Model the fold of this input.
Amino acid sequence: MGTAPPGRPPAPGTPRVRRLLGAAAFPALFVGLVVGMTQLPEFGDPASPASTHLSPRFIEDAAAETGAANMVTAVLADYRGYDTLGEAAVIFAAGLGCLVILAAAGARPDPPGAGMSHPFGSVVLDAATRILVPVVLLFAVYVLIHGHVSPGGGFQGGVLFGSGLIMMRLVWGPAHEGRAHQPAVPAFGPGLRGSLVLACAGILAYVGIGLAAMAFGGEFLNYGTLPLGGDPAHVRELATLGIEAAVFLTVAGTVAVLFDTISIGMRESGAPLPPGDGDSA
Amino acid sequence: MTIYAFAAALFTLGIAGMALLPNLLRKLLAMNVMQVAVIVFFVSLAFKDGATVPILGQGGAPRAAEFMNPLPHTLMLTAIVVSVSTTGLALGLLVRIRSRFRTLNEQRLLDRLR
Amino acid sequence: MRDVLPGLLVALPLLGAALVPLLAALSRRTTRVPALALHAAILAAALGLFGSVAAAGPIRYAVGGWPGPWGIELWFDGLSTLIAVLVAGIACFAAFAQTFGPGRDEAAPASTPLREGLLRGALLLLVGGLLGIVATRDVFNLFVFLEISSLAAYTLVASGGGRATVAAFRYLLAGTAAGSLYLFGVGFLYALTGTLNMDDLAARLPSVEADAALTVAVVLIAVGLSIKAALFPLHGWLPDTYVYSPTPTAGFIAAVMAKVSAYALLRLLGEVLAGTAAGAVVLDITLWLGVAGVVAGGILAVAQRAITRMLAWSSISAMGMILIGVGMGSALAITGALFHMAAHALAKGCLFFGAGGIRASRRGDDVEGWAGLGARAPWTLAALTVAALSMIGIPPTAGFFSKYYLLSASITTGGPAGIAAFAAIILSSLLATVYFLRVLEAVWFRTPGDAPDASGDSAGRQPVPVLPRPLAVPVVALAVLVLLTGIFARPFERHVLPDWESGTARITAEAP
Amino acid sequence: MAEGHLISIGLLAAMVVSAACALAVKDLLAAAALFGAFSFLTATWFALVGAVDVAFTEACVGGALTTILFVSTAFRTGRRFD
Done:
């Protein structure tokens, strides 16, 4: 760092003082929270404001207004669809961040064998994975599509799909070096760039649906105005499926990015980490 | 009330761990505990005695008293995503810090920056 | 236009945040043009909204077609559109610097088109998060966008590499704790009222009788947002973050990031929770902490040798000043606080772009390194001088008027709080004079003779420009804006003030 | 009220204990594993109080994804640090 800014080191902590302060502050926080909680409506009280003010409409009218039997999906994807766009953006931000911090530095990957990047190379594991992965991936898509009537939806499906990809990487090694280690197993699943493309496509699809609603004269994300035919609830149901699919793409892509960068990752030097302090054990 | 107090206990545990634990990875575990505490709190607000899960079954028009409040559940789905995103990014930073400064101990890290 | 612009304002940054990295990943070519075009479009939307609100009154926008309190509403008045213009405008400069500037420490990793695309995406995401906070009328939605902006900010800070990574990690811990505290507070509010919409909350809160629970809620929310706004005892994350960030990021974050949180604090404490007893007490505490922050920030700024670190501490002082205005709560004080947000954002953005750029051109970060620069680059240094004068509060710069409003407000407030605020503002100007004059004296009246000069004249090499042009353009433009804002202070006041008065009047009228 | 929610309270107590253990145990890998246990207890509690969607998500995210990320970070950075 040729231009290392002169000046003081970053905020030197005085652990002892902080510890003493902490010892006093945290019990106070706990007591304060509990005192406040004594005045909240009882746990399970059906007459509490939370249960009587907004939620009756979500419970009684959601199916008719949005076409989703799962009220959580109805609120998530429709009434508060803007929150869900934000949620997709948050996880996308994490993916971008890990790529910037760990991968896109023009760095080389870890040498094989470092961290968890080496395949296990067990026949049993290999066979089990061959059977399990398709099931997991299929189940992920089921969770996505069935989210209207049962627990699940784009986010959970996306995480499951991503987990399937992670499973393959754990057993067979990362997508971009899978072939080298296990010639018998075809490298499957998107690499880093592919995962990024998936994630971006998901966000674009989500915003695109929202903007399309604006193009047809509605507010941003007002699916009711989309010309998909049928009654409004049905149109909203279809559009909800669309945005759930968008969330699915974003989450699946980002999960793969997160795992690849964090566990397999790349380093500036490409050299294995020398042991640090306390690393001996 | 008793239920809420557990959320308060988890929250305090988490935030105290974030402040006091010396290892950065442990701080992140504590951070997750803190975020889960908030989720527990919200979910406990959604509970209604005598109500069932907020998914419409067969049968007539739903009545508000029959189902849990779906709104906090929705909010907490988002909060879970936020927490995993933060954790993911933080772990990325952590790997980077470890490879550059060779330690995850807060005090040693500060000494090395000096 | 009025029914399209709000949607565009929040949709465009998120669209761009995905589009730019996608293009970078697919085409492997530079994504400079689409990124700049998107920033320009966002600024155009913000300006359009600003004009529309000024001409025809506030806009309420129900996202998804679901009216509040069931759906999420956006709310645009003089206040929010002003901050939106500020965010979008300074983002344009940051994007310009990011696109054309070196602006990165040598410690940072090598740049590739993909990495640049990702960083541009992160900047767009940061803008989207901040605009989302500014626009929303829903307390939970505010949390979501707070986290978007935070994650994008951590990314941009960490992209500096080296120490910036550690700064980003500490910022992340503080920011996440802040977010969780805020969300816990929102949980209390939801348990007490059953709603998340700010208008609905303001209407329902006065009938809530649980004082202790309400106090806990207000304290949690205030502490959470105060961490984000770097209010004095909770400012720990700020100096390192500002100092070690890459220059375009530092300029943008220092200019608007904490201010948007202060804006959220103003919305919630000053408007939504104003009717509650706890809200009033917390506002008082905010005022006193603001006073403490102004003094402590100023004194610590004087104590710094590194210029960027001095600027960071001066930011803590400025955030204290803004929160003094928020805490006093009168219309005049709010105007002062808003004006100070604008004035300080422009001036501090200018100073950080300048100081970061000068640091990057290997002149060092201390006063000696700046000696005699005025003769070598008169225009850019004149611009930086204007910004510094605005920080001190010399007329006719914007900084003078913000301090003038805040001083008048503290006189009308009276009492010990008013006196303390008055004294703190005067003291802050004196301290700012001390720490900026030291630099200005070196810049204009000292010769660079003994200073470590890396320009390489003696070796006969091409002299390194004091400030690379991609950073000089934002610096000069922002300095011009500082002057213009000062000169047109009166119209500004007339634009923002009535909205705030009618807003608080509306809420107090709805409260029985 | 509390009498009716004994299972719930028992689960919550187990959550607090497992969280405390995860933060206290020496080996970072063990800490990550205990954190996984904490997440699954949490998911069970969510299911118990009728938040099936949240339970599902917490199981996917907290129990699986976050734990995997923690474990692989612990692998990469070394398990014993203080």
Summary: The beta strands of chain A are 108-109, 266-267.
